[in-house]
């Protein structure tokens, strides 16, 4: 078959859940700046989404 499902192994689940939790925690952390409206803020500068991106850039080095 041309399309085969991706193998879902149990060692990938913690990575998926961990990245989902980190994204949610970041949005909650910047919610006082309006982070829950991240779709609207993709194009605006100085918004909570940009602050979250700067936070992750600073955190990850």
TrEMBL record:
Per the UniProt record, one Pfam family is Photo_RC
Q: What does this protein do?
A: The reaction center is a membrane-bound complex that mediates the initial photochemical event in the electron transfer process of photosynthesis.
Q: One GO biological process from the UniProt record?
A: photosynthetic electron transport in photosystem II
Q: Where in the cell is it found?
A: Membrane
Q: Which UniProt keywords apply?
A: Bacteriochlorophyll, Chlorophyll, Chromophore, Magnesium, Membrane, Metal-binding, Photosynthesis, Reaction center, Transmembrane, Transmembrane helix
Kindly give the membrane topology term recorded for this protein. Multi-pass membrane protein
Tell me which stretches of the chain form a coiled coil.
Answer: none
Gene Ontology cellular-component terms for this entry are: membrane
GO molecular function terms attached to this record:
bacteriochlorophyll binding; metal ion binding
**Spans through the membrane:** 15-35
Q: Which family does it belong to?
A: Belongs to the reaction center PufL/M/PsbA/D family.
State the protein's name: Photosynthetic reaction centre pufM subunit
What InterPro entries does the database record attribute to this sequence?
Photo_II_D1/D2_sf, Photo_RC_L/M
């Amino acid at each position: 078959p041309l399309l085969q499902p991706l193998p879902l192994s149990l060692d990938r689940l913690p990575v998926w859940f961990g990245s989902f939790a980190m994204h949610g925690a970041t949005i909650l952390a910047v919610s006082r700046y309006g982070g829950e409206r991240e779709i609207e803020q993709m194009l605006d500068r100085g918004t909570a989404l940009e602050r979250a991106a700067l936070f992750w850039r600073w955190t990850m080095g």
